[in-house]
Specification:
- By secondary structure, this protein is mainly beta.
- Helix content is 0%, strand content 52%.
- It contains no helices and 28 strands.
- The chain has a 4-stranded antiparallel beta sheet, with no helix packed on it. The chain has a 4-stranded antiparallel beta sheet with strand order 5-6-7-8, with no helix packed on it. Strands 9-10-11-12 form a 4-stranded antiparallel beta sheet, with no helix packed on it.
- A hairpin with a 2-residue loop joins β26 and β27.
- It is globular and about 50 Å long.
- The two termini are 18 Å apart.
- 38% of the residues are buried.
Length: 306
């Protein structure tokens, strides 16, 4: 049987962020543009089972919500990897700013830590936004080089602005004490996709080669055995449990062991990124979008993917 042809608007998700009860915002890429020179971001919203969206120029790896859900001044922050940051105020206001015009290297990830937003990317660059202005805070870790070099920070998180971790390619782990960065001894030389800080003594890092570790700046305990075929892409904390995902499976970390999560929905499931608050956990990957409220799982299908 011939494979069903995709609709022109079919896409796959690249990040998800909570936006209130039963609501999320997402970014995605169009299948139809994968072999084209055009770079276009699909910005989507889902609330009460109703989809909305718009297109933006570029490629995005991260989306976040600034401000509380329901606040008329809330904004969607989309980190555009080549140039800077989109600020979208629903329903239609779009403002773009360049984080740094002088440096090469992609911007990969952003997160709010304490009162300020932080962004990381190529050449181990790190930025902090204060009062709407982005400043470099990567003295001692920034590595100038050619565009595309594999010296990339992929994730940043912290318990406070004087206890921040950043991880990336080649197993790099940096710690920031509010004044200076320290290059920590790493338990792996493989790429670390995500760092999740639950407390000063409870930090998780995960990535390629079945890499999953718990610890902090004093050292790391392995929770898995090396396996080149497995990559953990993201982590999230929800209702006291810590979740970690590969592209095809979702796990809970219990007593330093992984427990596979059974998700009783129709059709195949896929994972890549996650976000949570006290009410819901959401995951996205490929064309799959899932919500978990602590009891039940629910799947949502973007209309052009049907």
């Amino acid at each position: 049987m011939a494979k069903q042809k995709r609709k022109p608007g079919a896409l796959y998700f690249t990040d998800v962020a909570r936006a209130g009860r039963g609501a999320v915002i997402l970014v995605g890429n169009y299948y139809a543009l994968e072999d084209a020179s055009e770079e276009r971001i699909a910005l989507l919203s889902l609330k009460n089972r109703t989809w909305g969206g718009m297109d933006l120029s570029g490629i995005a790896h991260a989306i976040r919500l600034s401000g509380r859900a329901g606040d008329p001044k809330r904004q969607y922050l989309i980190l555009e990897r080549n140039r800077g940051l989109y600020r979208v105020t629903p329903p239609k206001s779009v403002k773009f700013s360049t984080i740094n015009e002088e440096r090469d290297g992609f911007l990969m990830y952003m997160r709010k830590i304490g009162r300020n937003w932080y962004a990381v990317g190529g050449h181990h660059q790190v930025y902090r936004e204060i009062n709407g202005k982005w400043k470099t805070i990567d003295s001692g870790v920034y590595v100038p080089g050619e565009s595309g070099e594999a010296k990339i920070l992929l994730s940043i998180d912290g318990t406070a602005e004087d206890d921040i971790y950043a991880t990336g390619f080649n197993g790099v782990i940096f710690h920031f004490d509010g004044n200076a960065w320290t290059n920590l001894d790493s338990p792996t030389n493989l790429g670390l996709q995500r760092v999740l800080c639950l407390g000063k003594k409870e930090v998780y890092i995960c990535g390629h080669g079945n890499s999953l570790f718990r610890g902090n700046s004093t050292g790391w305990v392995p929770l898995t055995e090396p396996d080149e075929s497995t990559t953990y892409w993201d982590m999230a904390s929800f209702k006291g449990d810590t979740y970690v995902c590969t592209k095809t499976e979702l796990y809970i970390i219990k007593d330093n062991q992984l427990e596979l999560v059974n998700i009783p929905v129709d059709g195949p499931v896929s994972f890549y990124r996650m976000d949570s608050d006290s009410h819901e956990l959401w995951t996205c990957g490929d064309e799959c979008l899932l919500k978990f409220d602590g009891r039940n799982w629910e799947q949502f299908i973007f209309p052009d993917n049907e």
